Task: structure prediction
Amino acid sequence: MLPSYFTVKGHGINEIEIQKSRFIAYISRAETEEQAQQFIMDIKKKNWNATHNCSAYLIGENDQIQKANDDGEPSGTAGVPILEVLKKKQLKDTVVVVTRYFGGIKLGAGGLIRAYGKATSEGLSATGIVERKLMQVMHTTIDYTLLGKVENELRSSVYQLKHIHYLDKVTLETYVEEAKKNEFTEWMVELSNGQAEIHDGEVIYMEEDL
Result:
């Protein structure tokens, strides 16, 4: 698992007009090629009467799955420019479909490359990009008498609180970078005067908006 990587926030749609042609960028996260292909099929079905539904996706920790499709536009003028924007922004697990409704004015190869690149860039900006960081969830169990102090210190620290479980005792789940596990544990022991029970939870990705 990668320590961190960039991807899109979720689903997004953005439309621009160039020389009377409408370019609509549909963007989604896709963690498998099947998800990417299904998304492309859904957009094509939705825009069955469009002139073109051009697409590209980049999937895998090492970008091992890459596909670009011009869908009838001159070779290399649509799918590849979309893919190049994804690479330039260092995005992973992302699929883009740019739907074009022709407006009557031909753009030429250079114009098409710029148009599909621009539609993709603006679509990504509208959708939003996140950084996913691999984190260890630390479980800290304390008595209710310590909750106010520990929660306040946590919320004003560099660590992000994930969830609080209120049972016989209180368990606070906190996102902690692998390299800071020992530092976090020592801090919690000191903060609770040695009364906290601390153990590792799951290892998951935490998302931060860029």
Q: What stands out?
A: The chain has a mean pLDDT of 97. The longest helix spans residues 108-127. The CA atoms of residues 109 and 191 lie 64 Å apart.
